[in-house]
Amino acid sequence: MKRILYIFSFLLLFSNCKNAYYVDAFSGNDSNSGKSPDKAWASLKKVNKMVFQPGDKILFKSGTTYYGQLEPQGSGIKRKPILIDRFGKGKNPAIHGEGQQLHTLLLENIEFWEIKNLEITNTGKERVPHRRGVIIRAENFGDCHHIILDSLEIHHVNGSLVKNEGGGSAIFWQNSGDDIPTRFVDLVIQNSYLHNCGRNGINSTGNINRDKWYPSTGVMIRNNLLENIPGDGIVPIGCDGAIIEHNVLRDFPDILSHEEAAAGIWPWSSDNTLIQYNEVSGHKAKWDGQGFDSDYNCIGTTIQYNYSHDNYGGFLLICNNGYTYKQPKNIGTKQTIIRHNISINDGIRPYPTKREGDFCPVFHITGPTENTHIHNNIIILPKRTLDNTIVKMDNWGNLWPANTVFENNIFLSEEPSKFVFGEDSQTHFNNNVFYGEIKNLPKDPNALFSKPNFINENVRGSGFEILKNFMLIKNDSLVNKNRGVSEKILLK
Prior knowledge:
It is built from 2 helices and 42 strands. The chain is mainly β. The chain has one domain (68-491): 3 Solenoid (Pectate Lyase C-like), CATH 2.160.20. The strands form 6 sheets. It has a 15-stranded parallel sheet that branches. Strands 3-5-8-11-14-18-21-24-28-32-35-38-41 form a 13-stranded parallel sheet, with no helix packed on it. Strands 26-29-33-36-39-42 form a 6-stranded parallel sheet, with no helix packed on it. Strand 1, helix 2 and strand 2 form a beta-alpha-beta unit. It is elongated.
């Protein structure tokens, strides 16, 4: 019996039942079969009425434009996903939501879909909460498998700029389920260009309760360019093992209010997040505004081989809310690793803010964070800033960081700077390099105070290719003492 079932499944998987459906807004007609380019459909409404089957393809003609929402139905299966793509030569087909709904593309309670080569906008007459370009939603669905967004351009989404009322974003995914535990498995967002969206780039909601922990797995966000987005860049929530790599985030416009906290790339209530080979620059949020962050209720975050520069709020935030610590939603921010990153000219906010004043340390570590290891980073401090603090230990929720280690880092300060400590416990420094006029130096039994011999420390700019200038020359004594970053950062 098992043999018969296996043969049946094999034949079903490799059967020739899949179809390609063509859509052409210029010369198509919804009364056509859609089965060939010369028999193409014409509208999104026709596509939305169809329940697609495993292996089907929906192909929009290149250079065509559509208005409204794309809301496909049906699910693929393993090794036979459903594909949305383009056909023919020319520009990507464009879908303009015009603010008619809170989404332009909606993938809701469907799985095994791949979406490629579309241009998406969603601009209404005015900003509204929760407006997105793409929404991926699973509710009381169980495991939602294999959603891939690839080579999209998403722009001009005028969602709300206020986080608490539901800030807008280019891409938003959410999973929930009171009746059926629900999560995403193998959600991939890659090779896409997101720009001129408010408030955020790629963000999410998910299961965050530790007593009902059911995190999404296989989340991958890679090779994307995000620019002219004022708020949070990339934020996975309720995930285990998310990988965020080879992304560029830049030119965040300074249009958020003083009450809006935002940062570049950061996990929230997620475990074992790997953030690597990303470049974040020009974040201008008036509250926070760092390039990177290991945030609330996160265990085992690793931030490595990244390039951070010219961010108003600093390089790095590590934080946890002491007011909710050890409640069901918050078991702490623990085992964060920050290694082999280069920060240049971070913490350059040019004006005091109503919320934080002139506060913009390069490192801000606050609240009940535990067992943080910060090692083999290069920190080139800016020449001019309101706040000349390198590291600020702080007490969000009246609780302080514990067991923080700074090891094998290079701190090069071009102007007077300082470290600021408080009631943090078991903060240790070892084998670091401190060069410049630095006040309140921490105790470091193996500190060095000689100037690092970089290839060319005066180089500034964007792109990983300039980081070769911050490698230590081969005969520098620091090389043999394990200071600085690994050349692996140049693999970008």
